[in-house]
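Action item from last week, closing it out:
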Amino acid sequence: MNLPARHAGDQISAPAPTPRLGTRPFPSSYCSDGGRAINNFEPDWPDSLTGFAREVYDNYDRYLRPAGYKLRAQILSYPGGMPGDVGVFLHW
């Protein structure tokens, strides 16, 4: 494999991280399906949110989505092999 020689002063650049902000994790029990839709990346995962988690999503949908922000949810832990805490991340 022929790679170019490195010289003093060469800089290696890495891709810039995507700006994001995470909310406080919440238990998957806040989801009507125990986090299944989030875990399976289903597009209608917001429909499974209840209570406080649903309020957070509704505020995102009303105020932040129109401004171009994106929201992503993921399961953060799997105690006993089942979905545990959920993290919600705002990207811009």
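Closing note: Residues 21 and 90 are 5 Å apart (CA to CA).
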